[in-house]
Amino acid sequence: MGIELWMRENPMTYIWLGSYAVSMLVFAIEIVMVINRRKNTLNQIRMMRNSGDNE
Amino acid sequence: MAINWFKYSAPTTFYGLAGKLIPWFAVPAVILFAIGLYIGFAVAPIDATQGEYYRIIFIHVPASILSMFLYMIMAGYAALGLIFNTRLSAMMASAIAPTGALFAFISLWTGALWGKPTWGVWWLWDARMTSELILLFLYLGFIALHASIDDPRRADRASALLAIVGSVNVPIIYFSVKWWNTLHQGSTIKFTGTSMHVAMQQAMFTMFAACWLYAAAVVLMRVRSIILERERNTTWIAELPEVKR
């Protein structure tokens, strides 16, 4: 019951926090994950290349 | 001047092209998100029946449409990879899946948040909502199946089959409000016209364009990583400036 009362009294906060902030957070997490994946892959390839050079 | 499109179907040439295209999608996406949110919250009027809550549609509708479109594009790429055995098609399908899943999640999440004040419930086993939930599971199934097979080419083929079979669900989502008696409303914007206020339409279309551009940018970013992972033993990857650094 608490949340229903709160959402009726603060509709804009409910919309912003519930929908837009969550969506933006999802997008931000996705971007960070994609950037990290690229960084990790590049590091692995560099390590492979360096170990190949040392042999 | 004729462009040889087949040239870009090879990971070697597409890798560079994708890198050049990313800022052209990412920067307008940020600008359009800002414009869309401004129109949606500062310009668009309050809805007569739903009050402020209707403003959730500016993210809910684009996310829902994109979750369906991305699935069809993913299935299309998967089918191309399966039929013509093209490496890049399968990589594109793998790159699209997580973004599509996130849009399906946002669609369901924002739908629940809209449903509670409007219908009085977070969730209903309504045909539209259930079929959208199945879409999310299809995306997750595609990702899980692909990750569970060690050989990437076999993983591509197995997950492509799932993507192609699952594409049956997309028209079901779209027509569910027509085929069944659902609580979810039908399309407000039709080819014959709409009763929506102009500012509401502008906000929704701007957010839709922003979501499209965001999806394109993030998919291209991801496919570049996939190309690097799959082609890491080749000489052209070893010659890349970012690898030599």
Q: What's this model, at a glance?
A:
The complex is a heterodimer of chains A (55) and B (245). Chain A contains 2 helices and no strands.
Structural class of chain A: mainly alpha
Total strand segments of chain B:
2
Largest β sheet strand count, sense and barrel closure of chain B: 2 strands, antiparallel
Mean pLDDT of chain B: 91
**Largest interface, with Cβ-Cβ < 8 Å?**
A-B, 27 and 35 residues
DSSP helix count of chain B?
9
How far apart are the termini of chain B?
36 Å
Number of distinct helices of chain A: 2
Order of helices and strands of chain B: HHHHHHEEHHH
State the major sheet of chain A: none
Radius of gyration of chain A: 22 Å
Number of E-type strands of chain A: 0
Verbal overview:
The complex is a heterodimer of chains A (55) and B (245). Chain A has 55 residues and is mainly alpha-helical. Chain A contains 2 helices and no strands. Chain A has helices at 2-9, 11-54. In chain A, helix 1 (2-9) packs across helix 2. The longest helix of chain A is centred in the middle third of the chain and has 44 residues, at 11-54. Chain A is rod-shaped. By secondary structure, chain B is an all-alpha fold. Helix content of chain B is 75%, strand content 2%. Chain B has helices spanning 11-43, 57-84, 87-119, 127-148, 152-166, 169-179, 198-230, 235-238, 241-244; strands at 189-190, 193-194. Chain B has a two-stranded antiparallel sheet. In chain B, helix 1 (11-43) runs antiparallel to helix 7. The longest helix of chain B is centred in the N-terminal third of the chain and has 33 residues, at 11-43. The chains are: A mainly alpha (55), B mainly alpha (245). The A-B interface holds A 4, 7-8, 11-12, 14-15, 18-20, 22-23, 26-27, 30-31, 34-35, 37-38, 41-42, 44-46, 48-49 and B 37, 41, 51-53, 55-56, 59-60, 63, 98-99, 102, 105-106, 109-110, 113-114, 116-117, 214, 218, 221-222, 224-225, 228-229, 232, 237-238, 242-243, 245.
